[in-house]
Every structure is written in structure tokens, then in C-alpha cells.
């Protein structure tokens, strides 16, 4: 994948080559800790809810929501084929994460490559095609829950399963793959539902589905921090934001808070992003000072766009 560093001093080629070296061990450790936490919390949710009632397991479900929702970032790194040196490990880990968050992996790879090619281009960046409602604060707040994005993703998967693949970033030669993948995913969910009914158990609902939905409240503000309010330019150093955060979130977000670095040099694997950050920090335009502050900034940006659109509507009626 090419670099996106327009109008910026490029990294020394030897330094970039060293930073781009892939390895299986960091990915195995990171994936092991991430999936391990999900298994541990799932077991605790089952144990506590069965012995003391579901209400007592609610805090565990909220925690589980964070880990399940942030599998999006694990899938994202695997989509770049940089989580592991061994190619099949990227595919296996990416597919497992993708199934758990209802985001078909092969389709996401096509979608995400288009996002990297056209970041912040309002006419070509697929992330901007799903517009955030800005005609009221209520709709903006609903968008921050992430639930409308989940609903749109499930509808799209259903359309793909019916053979309706219509986005231009899916080449003709990949359409059958996208259709087959959507059908397999829906088949997995149907089997999980039927298995739960046959077993008379709702453990998958409490330990997976509901936590996943809860986790969207944490994931969506994180995702908005990546680009919202940044410039509509070609350079990753201007159209993307790196956000300062704690070691815990950097770990389970697979170092993607270093998002400028990732967009500027997408061939660099997640475990080398801190070193890359030190090399290019002075070149970054948008430094987020923690996710609470950045969320306030993105909210203000959506509000300002809302006011701008309202003023345009008034002017057009005048």
C-alpha cells in the first residue's frame, strides 16, 4: 500500500524499511490478549448471571462491550495484512474478528482500501458516503451511539447476500466473493441462533450480542476522532488526527490512536507505530489531547456544520 505524505518530508528509506518489517509474535500476543479478555469476560458473564441474575452481570457486559466492539481495530489491522507476517494468520484473525462484529472481512478490505486512497474526499471517500445526520442535535447524538451504523451494515449484508452488490469499489471480479461471504456470515448467525434456541440458553445474547451493541457507544466516538474536523487535503498529515491516550486503550486499539502515522505509512505494522510517531510527530497537524476533548471537538464540528446547513436552507428559501 502506497504512502500518503503529500507536501511532507519523507522518511529515510532505510528507516521506513526497518519500521515496515512484519512479525508474527506481536500480533499473536495482541490477538491473544484481546480474544482472551473476551473469552474470560464471557465466562464471567455466564457464571455471574446464572448464579446471581443478569443485573449483577451488567458491569461485566459493559466491559465486554468495549473488547468486542474494538475487535473492529483488530480486523482493520488484519485487513492491511500487517498484524502478522504469516498471511493466513491475518486472514484467520481478521475473519474471526469480522464475524463477531458483523463486518464481512473481504468486503471491508475493498471498502477500506478506497478510504485510504480518497481520505476526506467528500465525493470519493466511502466513509463519508454514510453521512452523519446534522439537522438536529438529537440525530447527532444518535449517530454517536453507533447503532444507526450497525443497522446500515446489517442491511447492506442482507443486500449483498441477495446478490445486490452495487458500490463502485467492489470490482466485478470480487462481487461473487462479497455475495458468498455475506451468505456465509448470515448462515453462521442463523446457526448460532438455532443452537441457542435448541440449548435453551441466552448466553450468546448476554455475552456477545448485547455487549457488542453496548460497545458501539465507545467505538463510535473513537472512530469519529480519526478524521472528523480535519482538512480535506491529500496529505495524511492534514486529513487525519493522532490522539493522545493511555496505554490500555493503545493496546486494545492496536496502536491505531497513532492514526496519522498509519495513514501516512500504511505498510508499517501496528507494533511499530509508536516508533514511527516519534519520527514524524513534528509533521502532524492535528494532535488530539485525549478522547474526551476530541469528542467535544468533533461534536462542535458537527454542530457547526448543522448551523451552516441551516443557514444555507434559510438563504435558499429567501
Describe the structure.
The protein has 318 residues and is mostly helical. The chain has one domain. 67% of the residues lie in helices and 2% in strands. The chain has 15 helices and 2 strands. Strands 1-2 form a two-stranded parallel ribbon. Helix 8 (147-161) packs across helix 9. The radius of gyration is 20 Å and the shape is globular. The N and C termini lie far apart (49 Å). Residues 310-318 have low confidence and may be disordered.
The main pleated sheet reads as:
2 strands, parallel
* SSE series: HHHHHHHHHHHEHHHEH
- How many domains, as an integer? 1
Proportion of residues in extended strands: under 5%
Average pLDDT works out at 92
Number of helices: 15
Note the main attributes of this structure.
single chain, 318 residues, mainly alpha, two-stranded parallel ribbon, disordered C terminus
Topology (SSEs and partners):
Blueprint: H1 13-19, H2 24-52, H3 54-69, H4 71-79, H5 87-100, H6 105-117, H7 137-145, H8 147-161, H9 175-199, H10 203-227, H11 236-239, E1 241-243, H12 247-252, H13 259-264, H14 273-280, E2 286-288, H15 291-317
Parallel strand pairs: 1-2
Helix pairs in contact: 2-3, 2-10, 3-10, 4-5, 8-9, 10-15
Short overview:
This protein is mainly α and 318 residues long.
